[in-house]
Amino acid sequence: MRTASPLLLTGLAAALSLAAAPAMAQSKGDWTVAAGAHQVAPRSSNGTLAGGLKVDVGNDIKPTITGEYFIADNFGIEVLAALPFKHDINIAGLGRVGSTKHLPPVVSLQYHFNSQGQVSPFVGLGLNYTTFFSEHTGGALAGSKLKLEDSWGLAAHAGLDFKVSDNGALRVDVRWIDIDSTVKLDGQKLGKVNIDPLAYGVAYVFKF
After folding, report:
1. Which fold has domain 6-207?
2. Which of 32, 37, 48, 136 is most buried (most C-beta within 10 Å)?
3. pLDDT above 50: residue 87
4. 152-155 contacts, C-beta under 8 A, 24 or more apart
């Protein structure tokens, strides 16, 4: 379930304190790598299974890394990677019934505004592929075999880069990812969960 991210608030406070630092321009041919951490917070309503059982998918925080290549001044292609996120799965009236891990790599085309300035906003749109694995069951579903099918979907990205040097910036960002997965229990389809998370985070950006 989505909640406000202390990670994002902390990063924003730190970034604001650095807003007077030198600029980090982004030109054609440049590479950047960003290392940080993000909280994946699924939407508050994740749908129903088996004809009416309400599902809730929990939050998780993990380290993330992105690489971006600038195909033109201010335009970049970014790839997102992360350590596997783990989410508890709860059903209304039954409590925690399982968990799953997932990897949500995203490829995005991004535009960076005011890249010569101290604060550079950016927006991006891309494609996500999410693979689920290590599903486990417990509680009312203990002993059953749970499977979440992989998902393709769009992803949107927005954030701010606060320059700290000619080659470095502190980033705060949020990403929306379209993730819908068909759920199977002992090989039988139960329905689809609509995860559609927001991923809030902070990272340090290195330019090469």
Report:
1. Porin (2.40.160)
2. 32
3. yes
4. 152/127, 152/128, 153/127, 153/128, 153/177, 153/178, 153/179, 153/180, 154/125, 154/126, 154/127, 154/128, 154/178, 155/106, 155/108, 155/125, 155/126, 155/127, 155/128
